[in-house]
TrEMBL record, chain A:
Keyword Transmembrane helix: yes
Domain of life: Bacteria
Protein name: Dipeptide transport system permease protein DppB
PANTHER family membership: DIPEPTIDE TRANSPORT SYSTEM PERMEASE PROTEIN DPPB-RELATED
Automatic annotation (TrEMBL), chain B:
SUPFAM superfamilies: MetI-like
Keyword annotations: Cell membrane, Membrane, Transmembrane, Transmembrane helix, Transport
Record has Transmembrane helix as a keyword: yes
Xref: PROSITE patterns: ABC_TM1
Transmembrane segments: 39-60, 104-130, 142-159, 165-182, 213-234, 268-290
Primary site of residence: membrane
Domain ABC transmembrane type-1: 100-290
InterPro entries for this protein: BP-dependent_transpt_permease, MetI-like, MetI-like_sf, OppC_N
Record-given protein name: Dipeptide transport system permease protein DppC
Species per Swiss-Prot/TrEMBL record: uncultured Thermomicrobiales bacterium
Pfam families, A to Z: BPD_transp_1, OppC_N
Cellular compartment(s): Cell membrane
Length: 324, 304
């Protein structure tokens, strides 16, 4: 790693602090600008009849302070690791709530990512080694189709077909936590398929072009010239190097995965983070919205820095200076 | 892209000089290269059909999209109702065609906003650099860190849901990618000799940006706009499906899917299949077309 690259990465790390602050100010401003009263949403319409009671509740939550004071108060607590308590979910501490929900999302997305890679990597290699063959053309068309399929439409079609018409699988996954293990797998089939499909398309396409790029490099030609057989070149030289950009692209897909999970969890009633975020926004649960967006936003920013770092570590030729 | 433009000019010069060593220049090189990509042409044709149907909606919809017909709840496709009827006894074909009008127009309007903001901010960041660049880039860092759909839902909850809100919200949250792309183009272009020459001749900053840099970045911008047309239509559908976008009774492909989901247990598959198919075809076609355009603009790039 050159000095300039190290300095660049250090600057990226230091930048995380103002970026996280900017993100928090943006989100704080955005959700407080939204019409709708969290206290009313919380206590129900009967409470509206009693203005003094409402005011008391607002004061309890600190919602009667001016906005900048509320922000600083929130920020002070967050720095100490306290994201407050949820308004809409039984006053549970926000971090506890997120912990419960994150497990469900990680299970769903983790399985989906693993399956997507298990399919996409071999398909991408196959496609690249037989460039312009029928297989390759089918893979190219298939990946266009996979990327264009709206995930909620696919989910609804699967529900109609596999759950309603054939009755093979449960339509919704809300009760899955109570079902013991191998049986719980039933609930995973459709959500995992829907979450994995666009990733398969995306990664296969990416793997294909990464392979093609590597196959044209000098060291691959050298390996061939040394008399290494096609398999040896493919797995010993080309594949290992083609996997490097693959690793980084997975890191950069994090926002898409988090975004996709919102809709998938909504359709299948999957009790994860995406569902929590959606409920929190529609029910004006300020502490939960802020915590979910801050945690996912910081995760995305950190992932992007780590991706850059990984790139430099695996390929010493890469120089990062910020002018890209 | 830049090189292409210069190459074409070079050919003209040579021919003008009467050397005549190069083969005669073919007309419409861009269209020819595009036409060679069959998938891209199929995409363009599909888009023309879809937009044609949207424009001709009043002529082909057969029923009013809000007309009720007694006793026709959730009827499967038939000769009278090509795509069946929904839970409110309305004709699905009419709603699909009019919904297409709404969805396609919403996509177009949203992309217009995305491109206007993205190009303006990206151009200024790339051209002026310094503090302007820092401000724009750090804003994109922040916006890109939040999953777009979460940002959309949050922003959509600020206003009364509806068509206008949907378009605005997609437009003002989705520009960062375009801004970065345009900034990159402007950064690379402004170091080229023709810009130095223009500066030396006393051209003002706006003139250099509009007359010299923008035309050279246009190819990349057109491809980006094509791809974003597909994203915007998907985003509109997602928002409307979640109930935060276009509101019933105005039909859109997204809210038709939401409406159809209520009849899912009744097995009314036609309410889900057709609106989704329309979204899928539109998105696929724009992607294929964008890919074809990219290759046509940049022949050296070849078939990837």
């Amino acid at each position: 790693m050159t000095g300039a690259t190290a300095a660049y990465l250090l600057r990226r790390v230091l930048l995380l602090v103002p970026l996280a602050l900017g993100l928090s100010i943006l989100m704080f401003g955005l959700i407080h600008a939204a019409p709708g009263d969290p206290v009313l949403a919380l206590l129900g319409p009967q409470a509206a009849a009693n203005p003094r009671f409402l005011e008391q509740a607002r004061a309890n939550y600190g919602l009667d302070d001016p906005l900048p004071i509320q922000y600083l108060h929130w920020l002070g607590n967050v720095v100490q690791g306290d994201f407050g308590r949820s308004y809409a979910f039984n006053n549970v501490p926000v971090l506890e709530l997120i912990g419960q929900r994150a497990t469900a999302t990680l299970q769903l997305q983790g399985v989906a990512l693993a399956i997507a890679l298990l399919i996409a990597v071999p398909v991408g290699i196959l496609s690249a080694t037989r460039q312009y063959s029928t297989t390759d053309n089918l893979v190219t068309i298939g990946s266009f189709v996979g990327l264009a399929l709206p995930n909620f439409w696919l989910a609804l079609l699967l529900q109609i077909w596999l759950a309603v018409e054939l009755g093979w699988l449960p339509t919704l996954s809300a009760g899955q936590a109570k079902v013991p293990w191998p049986g719980r797998l039933e609930y995973f089939v459709m959500p995992v398929a829907v979450a994995a499909l666009p990733s398969v398309a995306y990664y296969a396409r990416f793997m294909r072009s990464a392979m093609l790029e590597v196959v044209g490099q000098d060291y691959v030609r050298t390996a061939r010239a040394k008399g290494i057989g096609p398999r040896g070149v493919l797995y010993g030289h080309a594949l290992r190097n083609a996997l490097i950009p693959m690793v980084t692209v997975i890191g950069l897909q994090l926002p898409q995965i988090l975004g996709g999970t919102v809709i998938i969890e909504q359709i299948f009633a999957w009790p994860g983070l995406g569902d929590l975020a959606f409920q929190a926004i529609t029910r004006r649960d300020y502490p939960v919205i802020l915590a979910v967006t801050m945690i996912s936003g910081i995760a995305v920013m950190v992932a992007s820095v780590l991706t850059d770092l990984a790139y430099v570590l695996v390929d010493p030729r890469v120089k990062l200076t910020g002018h890209q | 892209m830049v090189a292409t433009a210069e190459l074409e000019v070079g050919r003209e010069d040579v021919r003008g000089g009467g050397l005549g060593r190069l083969p005669p220049k073919r007309r419409f090189p861009l269209a020819r290269r595009f036409a060679r990509n069959k998938l891209a042409v199929a995409g363009l044709a599909t888009i023309l059909v879809l937009y044609g149907a949207a424009i001709a909606a009043p002529l082909i919809q057969r029923y009013d999209e809000n007309a009720l017909s007694a006793g026709m709840r959730d009827k499967p496709p038939s000769a009278e109702h090509w795509l069946g009827t929904d839970r409110n006894t309305r004709d699905s074909w009419a709603r699909l065609v009019v919904g297409g009008r709404v969805s396609l127009a919403a996509g177009f309007a949203a992309v217009a906003i995305v491109m206007t903001i993205g190009i303006t901010l990206g151009a200024m960041a790339g051209f002026f650099g310094g503090i302007v660049d820092q401000l724009v880039m750090r804003t994109t860092d922040i916006l890109l860190a939040i999953p777009l759909i979460l940002l959309l839902i949050t922003a959509a909850s600020l206003f009364k849901p509806g068509l206008g809100t949907t378009i605005t919200v997609i437009g003002v949250t989705s520009w960062p990618g375009t801004a970065r792309l345009v900034r990159g183009q402007f950064l690379a272009l402004k170091e080229q000799e023709f810009v130095t020459a223009a500066r030396a001749m006393g051209a003002t900053a706006p003139r250099i940006m509009m007359r010299h840099l923008f035309p050279n970045a246009l190819a990349v911008i057109i491809v980006q706009a094509t791809i974003w047309l597909s994203y915007a239509i998907l985003l509109e559908a997602s928002l409307s499906y979640l109930g935060l976008g276009v509101q019933i009774p105005t039909p859109s492909w997204g809210n038709m899917l939401q409406d159809g989901q209520r009849e899912l247990q009744a097995g009314a598959w036609w309410l889900t299949l057709f609106p989704g198919l329309a979204i899928f075809l539109t998105v696929l076609s724009f992607n294929l077309m964008g890919d074809g355009l990219r290759d046509a603009f940049d022949p050296r790039h070849g078939k990837r």
